[in-house]
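User: Predict the complex with coenzyme A.
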Amino acid sequence: MSARVGIHDLAVATAAHVLDLGDLATAAGIDPAKYRVGLGQEQMSVPGPDEDVVTMAAAAAAPILARHGADGIRTLFFATESGIDQSKAAGVFVHRLLGLPASCRVVELKQACYSATAALQAAADMVARRPEDRVLVIASDIARYDLDSAAEATQGAGAVAMLVAADPAIAEVEAAAGVFTADVDDFWRPNDSATAVVDGKLSIGAYLDGMIGAWDDYRARGGVAIDAIDRFCHHQPFTKMAVKAHRRLGEHVGVDLGAESMAASTGYNRRIGNSYTASLYLALAALLDTDDDLAGRRVGMFSYGSGSVSELFTLVVAEGYRAHTRGAETEALLAARTPVDVARYRELHAAAASLGSHDDAEVAQESAGPFHFTGIAGRARQYRRA
Ligand code: COA
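Assistant: Here is the predicted structure with coenzyme A placed in the model:
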């Protein structure tokens, strides 16, 4: 890459409701410490009937457009595991809701929790070739597992939008990257299922193997040595997974990496839960919003998508990044969520799993967010801006 290219702005959205995992544990007769300490999770965001990956994605991207306008945005990449159609990209709905220009390509990318990283890399390469272009990358997901399953406590919902541009105000994406793919049946979601199928223990092992494979490839491709990386964000299906990953990477390279170099990255995921593609970028948002000593520092980013594809790459945080972060807005979003009890959460979970596309249906506006799913008409999903 000849010019500095990277993340010029980044904004977060989540769902309207929140479930305390202590309540979920108590209802299931499980020690709450298993979730809080064993998994590193406090809460999970729960979508209402009028929310999905489209509404969260539009809500995440709207403040970026308000700050920067749409000029130069000729590509929108929508990364998701929880797509809402087998054919049409969810980003096309977002394109309309945000009023983006018609002269824009829109496409959806899928590979479990990984695809936002592929989108970010493709966006950076596009901008390197045409520095006047800007690319909107949105990661948006709802993590849904079966009720009463071991994975139930690792659900959640969230979106992160990023504006990728030349001379970025937040962080440069460095050119070196390590990648690793292995065909593993650790997690997948069949076409006829609203919830993922998962072998949790296998997925933890596959994640750690993928990280080592990606790290070794990163080094072989000219990536910097471990002591040149100052902070780390690891994919967080639950935040304890990032702690395990950090420890394993340290063992592999023969260095004690210390918990403090990744601790700040877990703040949002502990409260939002798993958000699949968005999770790694929520980790980055938390790091940027809470660590005020990042200027010029290099951040190692590890992305894992079950199935499985892994990537390790680095960012260099821009001088002056603190003037562009959004910690207060994200705190306000989290605080504005409506608490639900276990009974209401189970109702919302069941309703989401049973919504089909055959019959016309109207969905009442329930959430206070800026965008709403309003129902099905002629088998097509309907959305509107509030
Ligand atoms: N107090 C504190 N910690 C406790 C505890 C208690 N009372 N009870 C259990 N724990 C700890 C366990 O020791 C374990 O920690 P460790 O892995 O560091 O040893 C952790 O809590 C989880 O307990 P475990 O019995 O392994 O949980 P589980 O088998 O019920 O399920 C997952 C955990 C992650 C496998 C499950 O939630 C899942 O499948 N999630 C979805 C898949 C996923 O997120 N994969 C990650 C890679 S992509």
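Residues 31, 33-34, 37-39, 150-151, 153-154, 198, 200-201, 203-204, 207, 237-238, 240-241, 306 surround coenzyme A (CB under 6 Å).
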